[in-house]
Write a structure and sequence with these properties.
alpha+beta, 27% strand, 42% helix, elongated, 293 residues, 2 domains, two-stranded antiparallel ribbon
Length: 293
């Protein structure tokens, strides 16, 4: 009898407010769907494009929690509504409170046990092992068989793209000097069309070639574009630097063979004049990531 007196109020509570519990189930479902349509989609996009970010594991857990909550929430809302309609008021209230309680506690525990992504990532190029900070978003295979890797950084201060002081950034590709990927598309294109180019006065210690092209649109309008190629060759006539700049666009692409590496990066046209400093700074940055033996 004493036990029945203690449990009766709880049963009365569920019976009395069963309708509110069912309303709450639909309200929570609506909130979950709204969260999935705003936060969830943003997290999915971020996880797809930024899998190396240290917060990526938390975003994946959050997306999973939203999906599970939406599926379970829909089932609970429907079942509790049916139970309420059939007069099973206690069951309706208990199912809502129990299900959402488990969902919220499970999501909280999952986030608590989740750990951020690694601070340092292993990458390989030119037969060497590099340990690259996660802020640089290092892409590539963590295997000695890898033919290089790519990072994203702000060229002004060489900070990684995930550094709070960097916004966006440019790609820096690092590969072995003699690999197949070290001969860029720009170099092949320059060699194939060299006979069509106009040689201009040297600039910044480079030979300069201009390639003019005409493009006619479907409306019959003809547009002209000029691409400048800045070339440096060694005594064996091997290209050691090739910079391509399209007139009217403030971005140039540099392809550089330096020491044992072939690197490729984009920069503004005004930076071409300071190519020695830029190449050396990038080389020093790459060397700073070498794993200590």
């Amino acid at each position: 009898m004493e036990r029945e007196r203690k449990t009766a109020p709880a049963m009365t509570l569920f019976d009395r407010f069963a309708g509110w519990f069912v309303f709450g189930a639909w309200f929570l479902l609506l909130g979950t769907l709204l969260a999935g349509g705003t936060i969830g989609i943003g997290f999915v996009v971020s996880a797809f494009y930024h899998p190396l970010h240290r917060l990526a594991p938390y975003r994946e857990v959050a997306v999973t929690a939203i999906l599970v909550s939406a599926a379970v929430g829909l089932l609970v809302a429907i079942c509790s509504s049916i139970a309420l309609a059939k007069g099973w008021r206690h069951l309706a209230g208990v199912s809502v409170l129990g299900s959402w309680g488990v969902l919220l506690m499970g999501s909280a525990v999952a986030l608590m046990v989740t750990r951020p992504g690694p601070e340092l990532l292993d990458r390989y190029a030119a037969g060497q092992h590099f340990i690259v900070p996660w802020q640089y978003r290092p892409e590539g295979l963590p295997s000695p068989d890898s033919d290089g890797f790519r990072v994203t950084l702000c060229m002004e201060e060489l900070r990684g793209t995930y550094d709070a002081r960097c916004r966006g950034g440019e790609d820096l590709h690092v590969a072995p000097r003699q690999s197949s990927t070290s001969v860029s598309f720009d170099e092949r294109y320059w060699r194939d069309h060299l006979h069509e180019m106009e040689r201009r006065e040297p600039r910044y210690g480079h030979d300069v070639f201009a390639y003019e092209q005409s493009h006619t649109s479907t409306s019959g309008v003809t547009k002209h574009s000029v691409t400048l190629y800045f070339i440096l060759e060694d005594e064996k006539r091997q290209v050691t630097r090739l910079v391509s700049c399209r007139e009217g666009i403030d971005i140039c692409r540099s392809n550089v063979r330096i020491d044992e590496f072939a690197i490729r990066y984009d920069s503004v046209q005004s930076a071409v004049a300071h190519w020695r400093e830029t190449d050396q700074e990038l080389l020093d940055l790459v060397r700073s990531w070498r794993a200590q033996r």
